[in-house]
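User: Is it possible to get a 3D structure for a protein together with its bound compound? The compound here is coenzyme A. I've pasted both below.
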Amino acid sequence: MRSRRALLYMPGSDDHKIKKALELGVDSICMDLEDGVAINRKDHARQVIAHALANYDFKNAEKAVRINPINNPFALRDLETILPVRPHAIVLPKVRFPTDIRKVSAIITEHEKKQGLLIGEIRLLVIIETPQALVNLREIAQADSRIEALIFGAEDLIGEIGGIRTQNANEVLFARSSVVLYAAAFQLQAIDMVYFNFKDLDGLAVECQRGVELGFSGKQIIHPNQVDIVQNAFTPSDDQIAQAEKIIHEYNIYTESGVGAFALDGKLIDAPIIKAAYNIINKARAAGKII
Ligand code: COA
Ligand code: MG
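Assistant: Yes, that's possible. Here is the predicted structure of the complex:
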């Protein structure tokens, strides 16, 4: 699975921002056709995105497109225009039921067959941002083998619930951690909510750290200034990697002599700690920090 420490949105109608994104070294570039694009600009945005996918060099970045919700007729037009120019991933907003995902997947399969592409090559990243998606999370997470990540959408969710978004995000904690939990249960990535105040980089860093602690593997972003802070937050530090390597090294020595739990620097090391150490190593590897 590719690394998606940061997934950067830009309106699909804005060619300048798409070009700018190519130079940022961001893991995933998500050209938007949904809420970032005015209704009377959807057609134009489809053309701009199709041109970018066909002609621009995205380097190592993921080429993702957020389409309109599947129950909206715009979505079919989005897929018709975008699939022929080979995106890596389709981002699905406002999902409510597993059938929403399967409908999109079936359209993609038809397209892949027609084009002679590998079936399943195009991945799905599913945004969990409706109350229905939350109560159907178990089925949604298993709805289709194309799904690679669950993305948490805090603003839409709280809008539908009728709550109020706050800086400490307590109002979305249950939903936010549910997304991580179900993603982990079904071996999917979990991508955290957007920090909308893009000038407040200290606030962003705090929210990133909370996302890391909850278990997210990345975060959605909306501005170039957010790329480095977010990608660094979701990459293990040199100290964390060194510590993880030390734990695994010691563990291997102890297990060879038949010991499963031992003390290292005054702390107990046993199976869950080893698992956490491997998580760090895997994340560092996915981010290209170690081989
Ligand atoms: N992706 C790529 N480039 C972006 C960008 C983005 N999301 N947001 C801003 N930029 C570019 C600007 O075009 C500008 O480029 P320039 O210096 O070459 O002119 C530069 O970064 C600095 O931008 P800035 O002036 O600080 O912001 P702005 O006023 O142009 O834009 C927003 C502010 C919020 C409108 C813009 O960041 C944006 O469109 N974000 C994404 C919104 C979106 O996609 N929403 C849907 C998903 S939630
Ligand atoms: Mg949304």
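The first strand starts at residue 6 and ends at 11. The longest helix spans residues 238-256.
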